[in-house]
C-alpha cells in the first residue's frame, strides 16, 4: 500500500496551489463581496491548462490523471470555493459528456476549445420539479425533420449565463420514463434559449447560478449527444466523477477554514496566552484535523478508483457525504474559534461556512448519498 | 543551437532557516531553483524558442534535486543531467570540476548559469567552469542577444551598463533583470514526466574523486543577529538631520 502522490501529481498540485495563492487569494474576498463572475481568473486558468486537466492531449487537454484533477479542484477551492465549482462543473459535467458520448465531429468541434478554456461548459439537468428525482424532468424536445424544438425550464444551472456550451437534458419520448430522455449540445445564443433569473445565493458568490428558459429553442439534430433515449445514461455516467469533485471542493474549503483557525488560535491571546494553549481549543482543533484527514483519504481513494476505471459509486458517495459534512462542521467550528471576529466579514471564515453549506446539497443531497451507499451495500450483500 | 544551463537547487528564499548541529536543517524546508539559475533557464528557453535548438540542464546534488530538474523541464528545457554522487558534493572547486567534465564532451554553443546561488553566494562555480573549459565568460548579464557567431551582452557593472561581445561558445551568468521567468504550465509538467534525466556518477566522468575533493571547509555557520525595530525620526528636516547624525555617532558609532 503506497499512499504517496506521484512526483507528477505533486508537481501539478504545487503549481495549482501557487497559482491559487498568487492569482485567486488576493481576489477571493472581492469576488464574494461583489458576486461577480471572475472572468479574468477563469481566462488565466485556461492559459495554465486548468480547464482541460483530465482531457486527453489529442483533444487539447493536459491528459492528467483523475487524481491530479481532484487535487486541482481541492487547491482552487482552498482559495475560492466559487472558482472551484466553476472548474468542476466546466470539466466534469460541461466537457466530459461531450468527450465520452460525442460523435467524432462533436468532439472535434467542442472539446479542444473547452479544454483550452476558449469555451466554458455547463450542464442543464435540474428543473423546478426534478432535483434528486432527475428522471421526472419535463423539458420537451420534439423532433421536426433535422431539428429538435426544446421547451421547458432549467434551474440552479452552475455557469448559467456565463457558459458558452450547455449539455441540456430533455424528454424525447414521454412514454418511456428514464429511457425517453435525450441530451443535446446547446450553444449560448441559440434562438429561443434565454438566460433567466440569476440566483442570489448564500455562498459561492462569484459563481453564476441561473435559470435557463427554452422557449421553442431550435437545436439541429446533429447536436444531439448520443442516441435518442441515451440522456439518462449520459447524465448518470457523470455522477460518480461529479461527486468526487464536490468532495474535493469540500476538502479544500475545510482545509482553508482549519488553517485559518489554527493560525488564529496561535496568535489570539486571552488570559495572557495564546488561546491554542487551552485544552478546550486544542480538542476542537484535534477533532477538525482528524475529520479532514479522514475526508481527504476517502476522497483520494475514490479518485484513485475512478482514475483506474474501477467501480466507485459507493466510494464516491461516501467521499461526497463525509467530506461535505466535514466541511460544514469544520467551517462552523472555525467561525467559533474566531469568536466575534469570525462572524464579521473582516475574516474569511464566515465565507467558508457559507460556501460549505451548498456542498451538502448539490451533486446529490447528502440524504441521497446515504441511499446510494445503502443500495450499494444491499447489492454487495446479494453478491 | 545547443544551450547548457548550470542549475542549483537552493532553499526557498522565504524559508525560515534553522541551524542544527552547526548546519542548516533541511527538514520541512521548501527547495526551489536558485533564483539566478531560474533566469538562466528562462533565457535558455527563450533563445531556443527564437533560434531553435536544445536546452540541457546540468545539476549536482542529492535525490531531492530532481524536483528542481522537473520544474526546469516543465518550463521548457529539453533534457537534464543529474550528478547524484556524494563525490561531487564538495566546494566550488569540486562542483565546477564536475560540471566542466559533464559539459566538455557535449556539443555546446552557449552555457548559461546564475550569477550566484542565494545560499552560499560565492559566485565562483560558473566562472570556474568557463576557465576549465577554456571559453570566454561574461558575468552579471542583464540582456543577451545572439548575433551570428557571437553574443552581445549587456552587463551590470557597478551600476553602469557595459556592452560586451564574445564569440561562441561562451559562458554567461544571469543577473536579476535579465528576464521574468515563466511559470511552468500543467501541460509542461506532463511533458516533463516524459523527458530524459541522465544520472551520472563522478567515476563515469573520468574524474578522480580525491583530486576534486573540497579544499575549503566551513568553520562555522551562524544566523545574523536579530534586527531591532526601526525608528522614525520626528521634526523638520534640520532637526531630523541633527538627530540622525547624533544617532550615527553615539548609538551605532559609524561616524
Account of the protein in words:
- The complex is a heterodimer of chains A (383) and B (255).
- Chain A is of the alpha+beta class.
- Helix content of chain A is 53%, strand content 15%.
- Chain A contains 12 helices and 10 strands.
- In chain A, the strands form 3 sheets. In chain A, strands 1-4-5-8 form a 4-stranded mixed beta sheet. Chain A has a 4-stranded antiparallel beta sheet with strand order 2-3-7-6, with helices on one face.
- In chain A, strand 9 and strand 10 form a beta hairpin.
- By secondary structure, chain B is of the alpha/beta class.
- Chain B folds into 2 domains: 204 residues, HUPs (Rossmann fold, 3-Layer(aba) Sandwich); 30 residues, no CATH class.
- Helix content of chain B is 28%, strand content 27%.
- Chain B has 6 helices and 13 strands.
- Chain B has a 9-stranded mixed beta sheet with strand order 11-10-9-12-8-1-6-7-13, with helices on both faces. In chain B, strands 2-5 form a two-stranded antiparallel ribbon. A two-stranded antiparallel sheet of chain B has the order 3-4.
Question: What is the helix fraction of residues of chain A, given as a range?
Answer: 40-55%
> What name is given to the CATH topology of the largest domain in chain B?
Rossmann fold
Average pLDDT rating of chain A: 96
Q: Which parts of chain A are unreliable, with pLDDT below 50 for 5 consecutive residues or more?
A: none
Count of helices of chain B? 6
- Structural classification of chain B: alpha/beta
Query: What's the oligomerization state?
Result: heterodimer
- Class of the largest domain in chain B, according to the CATH hierarchy? Alpha Beta
Instruction: Please compute the radius of gyration of chain A using only Cα atoms.
Output: 21 Å
Cα Rg of chain B:
21 Å
Strand order of the largest sheet of chain A: 1-4-5-8
Q: Estimate percent helicity of chain B.
A: 25-40%
Q: How many beta-strand elements of chain B?
A: 13
Q: Looking across the biggest beta sheet of chain B, what order are the strands in?
A: 11-10-9-12-8-1-6-7-13
Amino acid at each position: 500500500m503506497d499512499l504517496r502522490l506521484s512526483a507528477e501529481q505533486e508537481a501539478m498540485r504545487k503549481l495549482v496551489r501557487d497559482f491559487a495563492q498568487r492569482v485567486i487569494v488576493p481576489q477571493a474576498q472581492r469576488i464574494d463581496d461583489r458576486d461577480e463572475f471572475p472572468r479574468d481568473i477563469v481566462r488565466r486558468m485556461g492559459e495554465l491548462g486548468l480547464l482541460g486537466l483530465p482531457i486527453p492531449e489529442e483533444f487539447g487537454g493536459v491528459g492528467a490523471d483523475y487524481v491530479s484533477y481532484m487535487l486541482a479542484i481541492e487547491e482552487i477551492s482552498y482559495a475560492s470555493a466559487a472558482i472551484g465549482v466553476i472548474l468542476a462543473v466546466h470539466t466534469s459535467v460541461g466537457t466530459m459528456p461531450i468527450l465520452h458520448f460525442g460523435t467524432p465531429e462533436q468532439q472535434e468541434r467542442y472539446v479542444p476549445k473547452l479544454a483550452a478554456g476558449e469555451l466554458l461548459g455547463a450542464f442543464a439537468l435540474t428543473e423546478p420539479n426534478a432535483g434528486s428525482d432527475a428522471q421526472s424532468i419535463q423539458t420537451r424536445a420534439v423532433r421536426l425533420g433535422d431539428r429538435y424544438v426544446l421547451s421547458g425550464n432549467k434551474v440552479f444551472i452552475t455557469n448559467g449565463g456565463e457558459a458558452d456550451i450547455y449539455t441540456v437534458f430533455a424528454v424525447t419520448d414521454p412514454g418511456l420514463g428514464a429511457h425517453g430522455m435525450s441530451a443535446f449540445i446547446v450553444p449560448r445564443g441559440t434562438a429561443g434559449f434565454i438566460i433567466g433569473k440569476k440566483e442570489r445565493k448564500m455562498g459561492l458568490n462569484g459563481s453564476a447560478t441561473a435559470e435557463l428558459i427554452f422557449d421553442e429553442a431550435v437545436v439541429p439534430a446533429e447536436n444531439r449527444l448520443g442516441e435518442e433515449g441515451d440522456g439518462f445514461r449520459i447524465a448518470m455516467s457523470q455522477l460518480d466523477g461529479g461527486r468526487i469533485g464536490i468532495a474535493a471542493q469540500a476538502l479544500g474549503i475545510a482545509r482553508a477554514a482549519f488553517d485559518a483557525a489554527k493560525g488564529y488560535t496561535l496568535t489570539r491571546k486571552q488570559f495572557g496566552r495564546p488561546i491554542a494553549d487551552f485544552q478546550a481549543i486544542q480538542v476542537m482543533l484535534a477533532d477538525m484535523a482528524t475529520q479532514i484527514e479522514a475526508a481527504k483519504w476517502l476522497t483520494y481513494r475514490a479518485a484513485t478508483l475512478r482514475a483506474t476505471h474501477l467501480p466507485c459509486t459507493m466510494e464516491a458517495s461516501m467521499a461526497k457525504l463525509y467530506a461535505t459534512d466535514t466541511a460544514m462542521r469544520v467551517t462552523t467550528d472555525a467561525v467559533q474559534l474566531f469568536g466575534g471576529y469570525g462572524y464579521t466579514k473582516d475574516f474569511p471564515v464566515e465565507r467558508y461556512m457559507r460556501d460549505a453549506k451548498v456542498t451538502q446539497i448539490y451533486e446529490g443531497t447528502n440524504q441521497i448519498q446515504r441511499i446510494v451507499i445503502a443500495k450499494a451495500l444491499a447489492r454487495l450483500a446479494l453478491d | 543551437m545547443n544551450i547548457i544551463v548550470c542549475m542549483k537547487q537552493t532553499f526557498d528564499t522565504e524559508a525560515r532557516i534553522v541551524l542544527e548541529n552547526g548546519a542548516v536543517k533541511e527538514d520541512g524546508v521548501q527547495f526551489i531553483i536558485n533564483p539566478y539559475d531560474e533566469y538562466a533557464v528562462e533565457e535558455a528557453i527563450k533563445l531556443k524558442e527564437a533560434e531553435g535548438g536544445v536546452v540541457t540542464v546540468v545539476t549536482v546534488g542529492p535525490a531531492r534535486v530532481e524536483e528542481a530538474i522537473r520544474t526546469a523541464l516543465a518550463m521548457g528545457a529539453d533534457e537534464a543531467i543529474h550528478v547524484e554522487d556524494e563525490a561531487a558534493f564538495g566546494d566550488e572547486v569540486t562542483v565546477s570540476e564536475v560540471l566542466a567534465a559533464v559539459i566538455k564532451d557535449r556539443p555546446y554553443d552557449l552555457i548559461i548559469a546564475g550569477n550566484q546561488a542565494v545560499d552560499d553566494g560565492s559566485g565562483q562555480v560558473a566562472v570556474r567552469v568557463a576557465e576549465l573549459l577554456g571559453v570566454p565568460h561574461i558575468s552579471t548579464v542583464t540582456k543577451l542577444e545572439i548575433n551570428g557567431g557571437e553574443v552581445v551582452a549587456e552587463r551590470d557593472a557597478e551600476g553602469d551598463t557595459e556592452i560586451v561581445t564574445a564569440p561562441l561558445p561562451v559562458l554567461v551568468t544571469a543577473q536579476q533583470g535579465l528576464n521574468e521567468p515563466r511559470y511552468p504550465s500543467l501541460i509542461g509538467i506532463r511533458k516533463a514526466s516524459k523527458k530524459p534525466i541522465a544520472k551520472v556518477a563522478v567515476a563515469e566522468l573520468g574524474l578522480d574523486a580525491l583530486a576534486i575533493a573540497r579544499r575549503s571547509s566551513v568553520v562555522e555557520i551562524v544566523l545574523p543577529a536579530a534586527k531591532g525595530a526601526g525608528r522614525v525620526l520626528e521634526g523638520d528636516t534640520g532637526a531630523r538631520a541633527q538627530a540622525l547624525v547624533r544617532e550615527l555617532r553615539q548609538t551605532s558609532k559609524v561616524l
